Amino acid sequence: MIAKRAVFAASIALVSFIFIYSVAAAGAPTIIIGTASGQAGSSVVLPVNFASGTTDVSALQFDITLPTGISYVSIATGTVAIAANKDVMAAAISGGMRVLVAGLNQTPIGTGLLANITLNASNTIPLGQYTLAPINIVFSDPNAIEVVSSSQSGSITVTTASSPSSADTTPPTISIILPLPGTTVSSSVTVTGTAADNVAVAAVGLSIDGGSYQPANGTSSWSYVIPSLNPGSHT
User: Fold this and answer.
1) What one-character DSSP code corresponds to residue 26?
2) Under a CB-based contact definition with an 8 Å cutoff, are residues 47 and 116 in contact?
3) I need a labelling partner for 84 at 20 to 30 A (CA). Which of 92, 108, 126, 168 fits?
4) Model pTM greater than 0.85?
């Protein structure tokens, strides 16, 4: 009888252990990697969402494998992590990046935006769509017990690199309408004129007798008041 009781007690202990650490897959909390698109040689922002499911999660960790040519830059805390007072940390690891969400509390993380991850696409990466899947996922409930997780993959699409804008080699044209060449004026005179460019006229400046340029009023149609001039010819 004593031996049978020992076996029975051991069986109960085993069943209890399995029950505590098992969570049904249906309604499991889920990491959802979003989608992003950007040009080669630039940065893109990848959203990561969290669905709380039927089980509370107070801390989590996961990795993302990044293809060659895509590198981790930074991470920004999302709204649900802020609401739960959690820190969101990330770091580059071999072959990708690792994300850790935790805090000095056991507040469950709600459903919504967990983080925004900034990634950089190199100039040499082949164009196309790349799948980004979360791996090595660990979810912890408020009792620090690991629970079953679920995940959804996302993607990043790399498009052609942007072409640098061509240099503007066409000089602007400018003309003085008044006063006419050779005109005798008083000590103060208003100079008016026009300016044009194949792209745009940003500003007009006027130089008198080789002096420094002074800003005129207006661009395509402009004017400048010369307050005083010494007697003689001026250019």
Assistant:
1) T
2) yes
3) 92
4) no
Amino acid making up residue 158? V
**Residue with tokens 């745009």, as numbered in its chain:** 200
Contact 81, 114 (CB under 8 A): yes
- Give 216: exposed, middle or buried? Use CB within 10 Å, 0-12, 13-18, 19+: buried
Q: Which amino acid is at 221?
A: S
Would you say 37 and 159 are in contact if contact means Cβ atoms under 8 Å apart?
yes
Q: For 85-153, give the DSSP string.
A: T-EEEEEEETTEEEEEEE-SS-PPP-SEEEEEEEEEE-TTSPSEEEEE-EEEEEEE-TTS-EE--EEE-
Question: If you ran DSSP here, which 8-state letter would residue 231 be given?
Answer: S
Q: In this predicted model, what pLDDT tens digit does every residue of 15-56 receive, in sequence order?
A: 322 222 333 345 789 999 988 888 888 888 999 999 988 889
Q: Is the dihedral of CA 79, 81, 87, 90 positive or negative?
A: negative
